[in-house]
Amino acid sequence: MNDTTPQTGRDTEDDDGSMSRRSVLWTTAGVAGAGLGLGGLGGGSAAAAEGAHRPESAAPARKGRTMAGVPFERRGTVRVGLIGLGNRGGSMIDLYLAVPGVQVVAVCDPVRAKTEAAAAKVVQAGQPAPAVYTNGEDDYENLCKRGDIDFIHVATPWDVHFEMAKTALLNGKHVGVECPVAMRLDELWALVDLSERTRRHCMQLENCCYGRNEMRVLRMAHAGTFGELLHGAGAYNHDLRDLMFSPTYYEGPWRRLWHTRLRGDLYPNHGFGPVANYMDVNRGDRAVSISSFGTPALSLAEYREANMQPGDPSWKETYIESDRTISMVRTAKGRVIRLEHDVSTPHPYSRINSLGGTKGVFEDYPARIYVEPDHKDHQWGDFAAYADWDHWLWKEHANPPGGHGGMDYIMVFRLMQCMQLGLVPDFDVYDAATWTAPVPLSHLSVKANGAPQEIPDFTRGEWRKARSGVDSERPGA
Q1: Could you tell me the pTM of the whole model?
Q2: Is 415 in contact with 470 (CB distance < 8 Å)?
Q3: What percentage of residues in the chain have a pLDDT greater than 90?
Q4: Are 281 and 455 in contact (CB under 8 A)?
Q5: CB-based contacts of 320, cutoff 8 Å, min separation 6
Q6: Are the beta carbons of 462 and 431 closer than 8 angstroms?
């Protein structure tokens, strides 16, 4: 099998053997759309990633005005619609309901039981029953057309992130998208252009930027604790084999099927976003190129051999995605960022989360620090001793609700606060595009034996201007 066509099993077919539209959009989207222009984008196969790539030494002409530094419209109540109510969306709704001044007015998912469960949560929280959109895979379009929604949260399979974000923007809504925001370079440029034209923000909902350690390191980095910054590292190393082969955890095999399509880093955002913040990428520095290398793709097939019964649809799949991808990103200031992706081999969870400079270094998993003049004799120091550097959000919300150690709630609280107070969001469409660009570019680099791929300047020169980001000031301070 080649890189461009994933082999799928019977679970993506109707009873008569024909491919269902729901299967195309929600589990194996992108195959039929490979190589199409912007008018027909449907997904992100390897062929599409390659066909969409071109040298970006000069950014295409801006079709609107920059969204860098543009505040939200101030509003007392933020009205939210959620698209996708599976593992991620079904848990995020609880966090929106926990933030004062936020109303969930509409929910959408093709699986009726999921919309019913989400609507029940809204009512139990004392809010009016939300509108429910569950009439097929296109019903999200009707949610986006509503006039009483300020912000849309997209938590669906990666294949349809772009189309949903595009539809939200064209209907005048601010939109936040789970990682990654899109799968192709031309899709990333389209979202940048749409955000600028519609004057609506399109954000990558990168929760790891709001982790307690990440925000502490961010403040320390900006205060000069590590000296002049030189290098950083981030990753998504998370053994997902059992979940990707589970018949119930994901809605269909969509995530596993991406391992039949692309060779590179499928999920760079969790590692890239925090380090980009440390280094003020798009706010004084920018990522200019990426070189990627991938190991052989062996582990998913081995896991299938050991765990899946003969006749399981997964036996029709051929995996090409590297078991571990290692990328080196170079910035305009000459800094280096190492990214890793590995969801196919046995190992403990790690996002690496490392930052080094002329005065010392921080490394996570476990958290440890070595900075001059505090430490000597080549012995790691206790990172807990630097708790005074915690971001004000963590000082005000020491025990936040929700998953992932509370970072999900901190992200939602801060985003809703920015909308309520009319503040500039902590990150924008340029960050979303930059943090996601390694998806198609790492694939191209791996296929080219590590040859550097240019990362576009999605800001069109605005990166040279210093501006605020996640290291924010407390409102009213």
Answers
A1: 0.89
A2: no
A3: 84
A4: no
A5: 1, 3, 259, 260, 261, 262, 263, 297
A6: no
Q: What is the mean pLDDT of residues 361-372?
A: 98
Q: How far is CA 229 from the centre of its chain?
A: 24
**pLDDT tens digit sequence for 103-142:** 999 999 999 999 999 999 999 999 999 999 999 999 999 9
Q: In terms of residues, how long is the chain? A: 477
Using alpha carbons, select from 241, 205, 136 the residue that is nearest to residue 429: 205
Neighbouring CB atoms inside 10 A of 94's CB total 17
User: What whole-number distance in Å separates Cα of residue 79 and Cα of residue 105?
Assistant: 6
- Beta-carbon contacts of 444 under 8 Å, excluding residues fewer than 6 positions away, are 49, 50, 53, 264, 453
**Cross-strand pairs, 330:** 289, 336
- 328 and 442 in contact (C-beta within 8 Å)? no
Which residues are within 8 A (CB) of 446 and not within 5 positions of it... i.e. 6 or more apart? 263, 264, 292, 293, 294, 322, 325
Annotate the chain with three-state secondary structure. Answer: CCCCCCCCCHHHECCCCCECHHHHHHCCCCCCCCCCCHHHCCCCCHHHHHHHCCCCCCCCCCCCCCCCCCCCCCCCCEEEEEECCCCCHHHHHHHHHHCCCEEEEEEECCCHHHHHHHHHHHHHCCCCCCEEECCCCCCHHHHHHCCCCCEEEECCCHHHHHHHHHHHHHCCCEEEECCCCCCCHHHHHHHHHHHHHHCCCEEECCHHHHCHHHHHHHHHHHCCCCCCEEEEEEEEECCCHHHHCCCCCCCCCHHHHHHHCCCCCCCCHHHHHHHHHHCCECCCECEEEEEEEECCCCHHHHHHHHHCCCCCHHHHCCCCCCCCEEEEEEECCCCEEEEEEECCCCCCCECCCEEEECCEEEECCCCEEEECCCCCCCCCECHHHHHHHCCHHHHHCCCCCCCHHHHHHHHHHHHHHHHHHCCCCCCCHHHHHHHHCHHHHHHHHHHCCCCCEECCCCCCCHHHCCCCCCCCCCCCC
Sign of CA dihedral 310, 259, 26, 307: positive
What angle separates helix 429-436 from helix 269-278, to the nearest 10 degrees? 120
Q: How far apart are CA 166 and CA 149, in angstroms?
A: 16
How confident is residue 403, by pLDDT bands cut at 50, 70 and 90?
confident
Question: Mean pLDDT in the chain?
Answer: 89
31-51: pLDDT as tens digits: 223 232 333 333 345 554 544
- Chain mean position to CA 188: 12
Phi, psi of 181 (to 5 degrees): -70, -25
Separation CA 169–CA 151 (nearest Å):
10
Contact 85, 115 (CB under 8 A): yes
Phi, psi of 128 (to 5 degrees): -60, 150
